[in-house]
């Protein structure tokens, strides 16, 4: 679990701490839409958040710890959207929900998946998905669920990164179709159904 995630319960319930951490995440999210992660400094983050420099270190040890916290929050939102649809065993609908969310937040996800943060995002995505593994429908019976989940997540992250790097726009529905045909339906052993 990241440093940003490992707060004691008393601190997680303190509204001041939650507001401060939210301001830092928002600041980083905005900065990532303007410049690559490598160019962002902690001073940039605190200036954007309008919070004292020393306060930053009460919450995060490094810029990467804040990025990890932001990644966990965004991936959690994404998974919250897709799990209910996935439980219905409608792979395409789940993929489309995921792609529409990424498309609506394209600048942020481009920064997360195509910049220097891609490795951290992939790791966080796998961790969070494995933590919720019991919510996923069963993958092919011959495939251990943990590796099936890991393969699905890393493939989805790679597909999303490819999509976000395209100069010519690719519609979310097309990416959802690719995701379902190549990854989801294949790993779940279900027949692909045209949308």
**What is the CA-CA span between the terminal residues?**
37 Å
Strand pairing plus helix content: what structural class? mainly alpha
The number of distinct helices, counting runs of at least 4 residues, comes to 10
Question: What portion of the residues fall into strands of 2 or more residues?
Answer: under 5%
Largest sheet: none
Question: How many strand elements?
Answer: 0
Uncertain runs with pLDDT below 50, 5 residues or more? Answer: 1-5
Shape descriptor = globular
Number of domains: 2
State the helicity in percent bands. over 70%
Mean pLDDT: 83
**What is the C-alpha radius of gyration, as a whole number of Å?**
18 Å
Topology order in helix (H) and strand (E) letters: HHHHHHHHHH
Description:
By secondary structure, this protein is mainly α. The chain has two domains: 9-65, Tetracycline Repressor, domain 2, CATH 1.10.357; 68-188. Helix content is 70%, strand content 0%. It contains ten helices and no strands. It has helices at 9-12, 15-32, 42-49, 53-59, 63-87, 91-104, 106-114, 118-131, 145-165, 172-188. Helix 6 packs antiparallel against helix 10 (172-188). It is globular and about 55 Å long. It starts with 8 loop residues before the first helix and ends in a 7-residue tail after the last helix. Residues 1-5 have low confidence and may be disordered.
């Amino acid at each position: 679990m990241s440093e940003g995630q490992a707060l004691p319960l008393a601190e997680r319930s303190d509204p001041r701490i939650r507001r401060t951490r939210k301001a830092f995440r928002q600041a980083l999210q905005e900065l990532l839409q303007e410049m690559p992660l490598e160019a962002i400094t902690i001073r940039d983050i605190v200036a954007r958040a309008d919070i004292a420099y020393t306060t930053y270190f009460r919450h995060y040890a490094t810029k990467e710890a804040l990025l990890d916290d932001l990644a966990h929050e965004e991936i959690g939102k994404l998974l919250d959207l897709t799990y209910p649809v996935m439980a219905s065993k409608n792979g395409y609908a789940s993929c489309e929900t995921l792609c529409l969310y990424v498309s609506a937040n394209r600048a942020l996800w481009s920064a997360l998946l195509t910049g220097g943060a891609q490795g951290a995002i992939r790791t966080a995505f796998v961790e969070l998905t494995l933590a919720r593994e019991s919510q996923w429908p069963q993958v092919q019976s011959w495939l251990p669920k943990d590796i099936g989940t890991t393969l699905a997540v890393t493939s989805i992250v790679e597909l999303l990164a490819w999509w976000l790097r395209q100069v010519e726009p690719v519609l979310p529905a097309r990416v959802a179709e690719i995701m379902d045909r190549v990854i989801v339906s294949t790993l779940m052993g279900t027949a692909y159904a045209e949308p």
